[in-house]
Inverse folding.
């Protein structure tokens, strides 16, 4: 199975071009900076890179969507497959390319968060002991989980 799921920020605006032919097809190329988890060795040397830069390509409606709505710095999630290819450049050198062919793409944060506002604000503690979680429009519709129920959650 060849499936990849990534979440990261665009390093620059997508580059979109159109194929030749009677029905031109939009092709968007962009790179996502994906944070790496820092292991013990990386914590000891803070100058180590903490992100991988993954080239992605999308086609058709997905490429048109990227052209219209994606811009440098926005956080997105993509699902797709790894593809490798090679070609000979104009200098006669063989170039090898590994990229993600995007099958699905979506925003990974709210519009407010992507415009340099804090992505998360800690919820106010509930006034009563076992108050039900509530959805807040400012949190993008996600529920606030009251403090003190960590042991009751089915996940950690």
């Amino acid at each position: 199975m060849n499936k990849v799921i990534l979440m990261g920020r665009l390093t620059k605006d997508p580059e979109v071009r159109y194929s030749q032919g009677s029905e031109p097809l939009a092709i968007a190329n962009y790179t996502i900076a994906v944070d790496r988890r820092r292991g013990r060795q990386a914590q000891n040397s803070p100058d180590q890179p903490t992100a991988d830069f993954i080239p992605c390509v999308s086609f058709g409606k997905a490429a048109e969507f990227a052209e219209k709505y994606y811009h440098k710095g926005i956080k997105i999630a993509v699902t797709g497959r790894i593809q490798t290819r090679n070609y000979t450049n104009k200098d006669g050198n063989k170039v090898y390319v590994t990229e993600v062919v995007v099958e699905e793409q979506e925003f990974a944060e709210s519009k407010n968060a992507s415009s340099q506002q804090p992505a998360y604000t800690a919820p106010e503690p509930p006034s009563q002991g076992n108050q039900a979680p509530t959805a807040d429009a400012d949190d993008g519709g996600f529920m606030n989980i009251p403090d003190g129920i960590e042991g009751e959650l089915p996940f950690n």
